[in-house]
Write a sequence for this structure.
């Protein structure tokens, strides 16, 4: 795990997780990411929304879910209502329609706080990966696989990598905050 290419994949996993988490946050605009991971009771088990039907966004305020099995309409409606997103689904024929209400200023500020919390969690994740890599570099030097100079060089490279990923986290957060605060 002491090769920079391997490091980047570890750090990228943290970034990808952050982007999935932020994608699920409600902004003023409809997005399939808002509902695709909601768990639906189907066939005696829990399944992700994207596993039980097609999700579409016909306009900026509406999400539609068309189940592949029409008998799941009520279960989908129930799962969306219980998701804690504060959205009310409506069964409309063979699909579930979700109209997103406008976000209030207070809701926007709460969402921005939540974004900040998610960003901090991602930064902690990056620091955890950094510590794991740093320990493996030190272990390689201790086992005489690399020299002291190589250890310092690798640790410098590691710090540069960490700084770039922290910057990417900050940039992602700024974009999401801007999206949330845009009325």
């Amino acid at each position: 795990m002491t090769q920079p290419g391997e490091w980047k994949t570890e750090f990228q996993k943290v970034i990808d997780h952050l982007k999935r988490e932020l994608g699920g946050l409600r902004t003023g605009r409809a997005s399939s990411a808002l509902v695709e991971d909601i768990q639906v009771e189907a066939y005696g088990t829990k399944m992700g929304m994207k596993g039980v039907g097609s999700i579409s966004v016909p306009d900026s305020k509406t999400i539609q879910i068309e189940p592949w099995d029409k008998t799941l309409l009520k279960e989908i409606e129930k799962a969306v209502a219980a998701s804690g997103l504060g959205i009310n689904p409506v069964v409309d024929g063979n699909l579930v329609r979700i109209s997103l209400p406008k976000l209030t200023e207070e809701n926007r500020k709460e969402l921005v706080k939540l974004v900040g919390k998610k960003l901090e969690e991602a930064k902690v994740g990056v620091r955890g990966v950094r510590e794991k890599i740093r320990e493996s570099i030190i272990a390689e030097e201790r086992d005489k696989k690399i020299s002291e100079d190589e250890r310092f060089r690798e640790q410098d490279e590691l710090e540069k990598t960490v700084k770039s990923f922290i910057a990417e986290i900050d940039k992602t957060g700024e974009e999401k905050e801007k999206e949330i605060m845009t009325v």
